[in-house]
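Final report, closing paragraph on structural work. Over the funding period we assembled a curated collection of sequence-structure pairs, and we close with a single example.
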Amino acid sequence: MMAKLLKNREILLVIAIIALVFLIALRFPGFVAPANLARVYNDTSILIILALGQMAVILTRCIDLSMAANLALSGMVAAMVNAAFPGIPIPLVILAVVALGAALGSINGLLVWKLDIPPIVVTLGTLTIFRGTIFLLSKGAWINAHQMSDAFKALPRAPLIGFPVLSWLSVLAIATVYILMTRTPVGRAFFAVGGNPHAAVYAGIDVGRTRFFAYCLSGGLAGLSGYLWVSRYAVAYVDIAAGFELDIIAACVIGGISIAGGIGSVGGAVLGSLFLGVIKNALPVINISPFTQLAISGTVIIIAVAVNARTEKRKGRVILKKAEAV
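Its predicted structure, as stored:
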């Protein structure tokens, strides 16, 4: 029984997070205070939302390197709209940037689906295009706090039943994506396409269309994150979230989402994000330099990939690959 539990990736991650928090608490007892743990979750909320979108894409044997650039472009547009028309209701702004993010994600999906271009090439190209578009729109200028309306900046921090709205939005995203992945044909198609695209075709699943939907989902979540990022930090500029795509992918890999597709869970993506969130909040507290933090994050990713590879071998992934090649 215990051996079976320890083979469960989510349970192992929970144990690892608890052990990590315990070790940090030995030096800084205040880290385990409920209020501080709630702040750590709140700080990780945007990463969780983004990891859920990346998870859907990776499950279909693709990858989205443009998520952070999508976030930055959507966030800049939200800030510019708010600065120019501060009277527009904030829910309308949020809906607009979610639609914009989904539209940007659909460009990736269409290029992968219709032109059969490798996902890593497509998203690397759109990453650059999105960043360049931000510069063209803003002409390199920043949108600062004094240019944004109070309502625009207040929403993510507003308390709701004891927690900031940002935290509740991440909980809502987790619940929505969980239902999508486990209770809808589209969610099951993500796993089928990633597990064996040839078999998925025989089952009547359109592989290209499924990947298109995954990119739309990741884009929509990136658009939502764009508003949350810009409003929370009260600033928008060209290099928002530069390099954050690596953290998003790392959270998925640590959470057990297989880069080979078809294996993963919402719980894994959330726990992988929380693991990274605890590390990123704890390392500065114990005076670890940013460069060492990068090295530690990279080491954790390599270990996670190695663990994933060994797990997939035990589950017969190699045998399936041989069968596909025949």
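Residues 61 and 261 are 4 Å apart (CA to CA). The chain is about 75% helix and 0% strand. We thank the funder for supporting this effort.
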